[in-house]
Design a protein that fits this description.
- There is one protein chain.
- The chain has 388 residues and is an alpha+beta fold.
- The protein folds into 2 domains: 182 residues, no CATH class; 126 residues, Heat Shock Protein 90 (2-Layer Sandwich), CATH 3.30.565.10.
- Helices cover 63% and strands 9% of the residues.
- It has 11 helices and 5 strands; from the N terminus they run H-H-H-H-H-H-H-H-H-E-H-E-E-H-E-E.
- Strands 1-2-3-5-4 form a 5-stranded mixed β-sheet, with helices on one face.
- Helix 4 runs antiparallel to helix 5, helix 5 runs antiparallel to helix 6 and helix 6 crosses helix 11.
- The radius of gyration is 39 Å and the shape is rod-shaped.
- It starts with 6 loop residues before the first helix and ends with a strand.
């Protein structure tokens, strides 16, 4: 899994958040203007305010059109821009003449729709640059006010609230752009670090499989050869050695797999142990092993084979017991012997049988291993794996 949130996805998420924020800010501004005009109409009983309210609704409709994903279509953007311009022109032509002589074009009732139109311009991203959209929207918001003011013989006055809104929005967009540029420049380095981490994890997994396989084949065969009487090896022993050497040939994935020669299930493990001279008594709910998926069954079989091999090589006896216990959620296989036993913590670090071939394999399939042993008291290994 990559450690980096892709820059493209981050940009999309940021654009959506910006569009939603701009939409609701604009709607609040238009709502405040609508409420103010409506209150003035109630107070002064003027019906002239009705067209002004309609003009505000037209501007609000333009904002609704620009909401993602419809607002990403060029035709919709043009229609929304035309609607905002027409609504703002109508609003200004009705409201500005009604203002008192000492009021100017920066009156708050004129500022609110202008701020709404300006922030609506940020909603055109990612179809177009949000900065461009904001600047075009600022022109659409201010141009009708200037024209109506000139017609009315009033000098246009800079609108401080709308200008402040414009500058703040442009600064916000500039900071977002700079942040994206920094993220884009660092993304290759972080992605490479993520790939290196994945490669290291995979290399550790392959090393684990390799160590377990070498231990289960070459080292086990050498241990068996070291325990037999001098002379010619039996046919069964020679066949196992031949299979182990053949098993390590190159050509499979990573040069190794476990299933071809070693069997891959508990039954095969028991048969191989018996072929080597170990008497294995099997009991319990053996049929439950059929409920395991192939990968889990293979890992369990290899772990059981290693346990039985340990009995043959180290327990000092020639018999062992295998018991299967099953529940609805898991299958437990126990390998028990009455041999010499040992202390696990005192086993040399380079001895990989229990650590890699048993505990490691069972852990890889989501299972657990418990080991009970002590010198002179034999050993019992419990391997629990989940059922399919």
């Amino acid at each position: 899994m990559s450690l980096v949130f892709p820059n493209a996805l981050a940009a999309i998420t940021t654009n959506l958040a910006l569009a939603r924020g701009a939409f609701w800010f604009g709607m609040v501004c238009l709502g405040a203007a609508f409420s103010s005009v409506a209150l003035i109409m109630l107070d002064r009983s003027r019906t002239a305010g009705v067209p002004a309210l309609a003009a505000l609704l037209v501007i609000a409709a333009a904002g609704v059109l620009l909401k993602p994903p419809t607002g990403r279509r060029p035709v919709i953007i043009v229609i929304a821009a035309g609607g905002a311009l027409a609504g703002n022109a109508l609003y200004a032509s009705i409201l500005l003449p009604a203002l008192r002589a000492f009021d100017s074009s920066d009156a708050v009732l004129l500022s609110l729709p202008k701020m709404a139109i300006i922030v609506f311009g940020a909603m055109v991203a990612p179809r177009y640059s949000a900065v461009t959209g904001v600047l075009v929207a600022a022109v659409l918001a201010q141009a009708p006010i200037v024209l109506v003011s000139l017609v009315e013989g009033r000098a246009p006055t800079p609108d401080i609230p709308a200008l402040t809104c414009l500058i703040a929005l442009l600064l916000t967009l500039g900071l977002l752009t700079a942040s994206r540029d920094r993220t884009r420049s660092s993304e290759p380095v972080m992605s490479r670090a993520g790939r290196d981490d994945i490669a290291a994890t995979e290399a550790a997994r392959v090393e684990h499989i390799t160590s377990a396989l070498v231990h289960d084949t070459i080292l086990n065969e050498l241990a068996v050869i070291g325990t037999v009487a001098p002379g010619v090896l039996t046919h069964a022993a020679r066949e196992h050695v031949r299979q182990s050497i053949h098993r390590l040939r190159p050509g499979a994935e990573y040069g190794i797999t476990d299933s071809d020669v070693l069997g891959g299930d508990v039954a095969a493990a028991v048969e191989q142990a018996r072929a080597r001279g170990l008497a294995v008594t099997v009991g319990g709910e053996v049929t439950a092993l059929d409920s395991l998926d192939p990968h889990t069954a293979e890992a369990l079989g290899l772990a059981v084979l290693q346990c039985l091999t340990n009995v043959s090589a180290h327990a000092g006896i020639d018999h062992a017991e295998l018991t299967v216990i099953a529940t609805e959620a898991e299958v437990c296989v126990m390998v028990i012997d009455s041999g010499c036993g040992f202390v696990e913590s005192e086993v040399d670090h380079d001895r990989l049988g229990v650590r890699r071939s048993v505990r490691g394999r069972i852990a890889d399939v989501g299972g657990t291993v418990q080991l009970w042993t002590s010198p002179g008291a034999g050993s019992a290994v419990s391997m629990r794996v989940p059922r399919s």
